Amino acid sequence: MSKKRKFKQYRLIFTCLVLSILAWFTLKMSQNYKQTYQFAVEFTNLPKDKFLTYRSDIIMTVSMETKGISLLKFEFNKKKILLDYPRIIKAEQQQNNNIAIDKKQLESYLINQLNFPVTSTVIEPLSISLEFEGFPDK
């Protein structure tokens, strides 16, 4: 056998191997998986006329069930959730100094704003509490 023919055989075997791995990966990623992630919670765009004195639960646990390909982005992302204060807090809540963000608000925000998968999302804690105080008068 010539070297050229051996090279073609190895190249064919390598190509088949790569194609079979891609097919296997595609099949595995199309299945549903249940996964739990822990995210650090940070707030952005906090009110400028108040300062934050208390924030509960800076770690949020999110369990979800979805296709494997959708979970890949969470595997390689920073485990941090930025909550945009004006978007997640209702206008009537923003007038108060003590705010509780309930599970429904968190779930809605995560699904709509951060493109979390919709199927079987479980969020803990059930609420996040914030306390603000106004700046002292000079």
Annotation keywords:
single chain; 138 residues; alpha+beta; RNA Polymerase Alpha Subunit, Chain A, domain 2; 2 domains; three-stranded antiparallel β-sheet; 5 helices
Proportion of strand residues: 35-45%
Biggest sheet character: 4 strands, mixed
Please tally the helical runs, counting DSSP H or I stretches of 4 or more residues.
5
The fold-level CATH name of the largest domain is: RNA Polymerase Alpha Subunit, Chain A, domain 2
Query: How are the strands of the biggest sheet laid out side by side?
Result: 4-1-3-6
Poorly predicted segments: none
SS content category: alpha+beta
Walkthrough of the structure:
With 138 residues, the protein is an alpha+beta fold. The protein folds into two domains: 1-30; 32-134, RNA Polymerase Alpha Subunit, Chain A, domain 2 (Beta Complex), CATH 2.170.120.30. It has five helices and seven strands. It has helices at residues 3-29, 68-76, 85-88, 91-94, 103-113; strands spanning 32-44, 50-55, 59-67, 80-84, 98-102, 122-124, 127-134. It has a four-stranded mixed sheet. The protein has a three-stranded antiparallel sheet with strand order 2-7-5. The termini are far apart.
